[in-house]
Amino acid sequence: MNIFDYLDYRLFLKEFYEERKKTNSFFSYRYMGNKVGMDPGYLVRVMQGRLHIAESSIDRFAALCKLNEKESVYFSTLVSFGKAKSERQIKLYFEKLLSLKNVKARRIEESQYEFYQKWYYSAVRSLIGFCGFRGDCKELAEQLSPSISAWDAKKAVRLLERLKLVKKNARGVYEITDTTITTGKEWRSIAVREFQRQTIDLARESLERHAKELRDISTVTVAVASGDLPEIRERISEFRNSILGLAAENPSPDCVYQLNIQLIPLSKVERTAP
Q: Which CATH code is given to the segment(s) 102-215?
């Protein structure tokens, strides 16, 4: 087991236990609990993702799992990451986890994580798909709304090339590739929140920046049964896919749009709701 493959310390402990149990019949929750000074029942709930371990027991778990110094630091950071509440803490500990990974994995994940940190990275990629970009980053930057600096556009292109999301063809024209970012959903959910926050801000700014003819921002407030949420999500998904299908069918796009669909509760929701 490689702890650097994990972003959830409780999943690591669960799979560590299962692995040890296969080869050592005596290895039980009670045995493991005795080694780390924890009640077996509490330990089970930790592995189920319902509870967290105390800071004081981190070193004992690291010793039980025979982690070396760097692995122990990673494990300790995993615990802090798992307990983090605020967006700032989550981002801080996640970026520390990235820095502790091996160089090859870190380069891949840091670049993919970076892709979601600026709204214009995905916009530049979509723009490159039809604008005939040949390397003039100043012109590319000015085509965005709001425009960005030539340096930011150049940085975006370099990142997209590094991730193999765009490439230069034999004619010297950049084109998008079919490559997708597929690394585990745990880190993507962290990164995407930042991307969504930025695009929501752009939608708010669009009220003042763009004429009504160039945008469509509508709102509706409704009372629904919480049990209908799965169907509402499904209908939103169908709508989103229909827009993607329409865009894919048009061979000659001439602009880039950002579509945000927001469904948020305006009253308290029972925890039993789906």
A: 1.10.10
CB 109 within 8 A of CB 187: yes
Quick one: CATH architecture of 3-86?
Answer: Orthogonal Bundle (1.10)
In three-state secondary structure terms, 174 is: strand
Which alpha helices (H) appear in the chain, and where do they start and end?
A: 9-23, 29-36, 40-47, 58-64, 69-83, 87-100, 103-115, 119-131, 137-142, 150-162, 185-209, 229-249
What distance in Å separates the CA atoms of residue 249 and residue 241, rounded to the nearest whole number? 12
CA 4 to chain centre: 17
Could you tell me which of 187, 196, 248 has the C-alpha nearest to residue 6? 187
Longest Cα–Cα distance in the chain: 71
* Rg (alpha carbons) of the chain, rounded to whole number: 24
Residue whose C-alpha is closest to residue 259's, from 221, 217, 231: 217
Alpha-helical (H) ranges within 24-136 are: 29-36, 40-47, 58-64, 69-83, 87-100, 103-115, 119-131
User: What are the pLDDT digits (tens) for 5-17?
Assistant: 888 999 999 999 9
Distance (Å, rounded) from C-alpha 41 to C-alpha 29?
8
Domain boundaries, the chain: 3-86, 102-215, 218-274
Q: Give pTM, 2 decimals.
A: 0.67
Total residues found in the chain within this entry: 274
Local structure of residue 259 (DSSP, 8 states): -
Per-residue confidence at 266, pLDDT binned at 50, 70, 90?
Answer: confident
User: Within its chain, how far is the Cα of 223 from the centroid?
Assistant: 31
- What does the pLDDT look like over 96-115, one tens digit per residue? 888 887 655 555 566 777 88
